Amino acid sequence: MKILLIHSEGNQTHINDFMSDLLLHGLRQLYGSEVIDYPGCWYMYSDEITNRKYDINKIWGKGFTINRTLKNYNSIDRTDIQKKIQEKYFDLIIYGSIRRSDQFVDDVIKYNNKVIFIDGEDDNIIDERYTKSGLYFKRELLEDRNNVIPISFAIPKEKILKNISEKPTNLLAPLIPGRLSTYIYDDEKTYYNMYSNSIFAITNKKLGWDCLRHYEILMNGCIPLFFNIKDCPKLILKTLPKERLSEIYSNFHNVLSLYSPFKIYKKKFLSFKKIFSYIPNMLKDKNANSFMKTNSNVLEIKNELLNFTKQNLTTEILAKYVLSKKKL
Q1: Domain ranges of the chain
Q2: DSSP 122-139
Q3: What is the pLDDT of residues 121-180, one digit of tens each?
């Protein structure tokens, strides 16, 4: 199947969009070089990224999880794209980030191409201009809408840990969301090892509920302690086992009371009641091995979530999901 994925060329702060990148990876797993990324997601190609001068901080998350996941950048034919659109050369055209790039969209619609629009932004806005021209996938979708479909992040299957670490060294992963002093990981391997060597990791809603960090925790065999997951709207994070994660948080959130609440919680999660309730526990044992002796089921939970990730959260499954919604 010949697919054109038109992606964003970036903005002043970042050059990529995770939702678009992850979908491209999944489509490429299914259809190889028949999937054309335009103008070209060079930062995802192991052979091309080394040829570019760029600021790593302008790639979301320093490019962890998506960089260098594709090969052979120059083997993709990106020529005469507008002409091919006019001649209906492609079986499907996907706008990977429609609110960042609508290049050629007038021709796409004028020549009656089959088209999908992806909106991976953190907000709940829907661009009404496109909902009548093709299927519109929205990442932070609040309510059922005609021709608007929920979509969530995913993980390249080659990045998923094969087996959990049965002897984790950290009770709680050292990276604390929102605490920039803990963002000390400059390479992907060290970042992943931090999660795989931990029993639990904190995660929470950012600007939007969906966040690649949730998936990176899961793919490394770590158990997310997801703040307020019970409040997540039903159409958002649909691929995650939200009820199970809520149950896990209820069962194990007391782990957090072993740590200073000022180092764990952002201001919006803090309260005087929470602060004072944690004080008696702050000097208790934080040893991962000791915790597992009295909570032997955590290894079963780690395995359960890792297997769920392998079976439900890959980019290939994401791509199949998107394609299944469009009659081709």
Answers
A1: 3-154+315-324, 158-312
A2: SS----TTSTTTSEEEET
A3: 999 999 999 999 999 999 999 999 999 999 999 999 999 999 999 999 999 999 999 888
Would you say the C-alpha torsion 169, 172, 177, 180 has a positive or negative sign?
negative
E-only strand ranges, the chain: 3-6, 35-38, 92-95, 115-119, 135-138, 148-150, 170-172, 198-203, 223-226
Residue 233: which of 201, 205, 198 has the closest Cα? 205
Spelled out in words, what is the top-level CATH class assigned to the domain 3-154+315-324?
A: alpha beta
Taking the CA atoms of the chain, what radius of gyration do you get in angstroms? Answer: 21
pTM of the model: 0.93
| DSSP state for residue 272 in the 8-state scheme | H
Q: What is the pLDDT of residues 7-48, one digit of tens each?
A: 987 777 888 999 999 999 999 999 999 999 999 999 999 999
Starting at the earlier edge strand, list the strands of the sheet with 170-172: 170-172, 198-203, 223-226
Contact 94, 114 (CB under 8 A): no
Cross-strand partners of 287: 170
pLDDT of 256 strictly over 60: yes
